[in-house]
Amino acid sequence: MSPSHQSGSGKGPAAPTRPPGEHDVKGHAFHDEESDPSPAPAAPERRITWRKLVVLPAVLAVILVITYVWITNIHLDSIAENSLSGGNVQLRWWQHVRLTAISTFWVLIIAIPLGIALTRRRLRKAAPAFTALANVGQATPAIGLLALLVIWLGIGPRTAIIGIVIYAVLPVLSNTVAGLRAIEPNMIEAARGMGMSGRGVLLKVELPLAVPLILAGVRTALVLNVGTATLATFGGGGGLGDLITSGIQTQRMPVLIIGSVLTVVLALLVDWLASLAELALTPRGLEER
Amino acid sequence: MSFWEYLITRHQQLLTDAFQHVSAVFQCMVIATVLGVIIGVVSYRSGWGGSLAITSTATILTIPSLAAIGLLIPLVGLGVAPTVITLTLYGLLPIVRNSIVGLRGVDPSLVDAATGIGMSRTARLCRVELPLAWPPILTGIRVSTQMLMGIAAIAAYASGPGLGNEIFRGIASLGSANAINQVLAGTLGIVILALLFDAAYVLLGRLTIPRGIRA
Question: Helix, strand, or coil here: A24?
Answer without folding.
Answer: strand
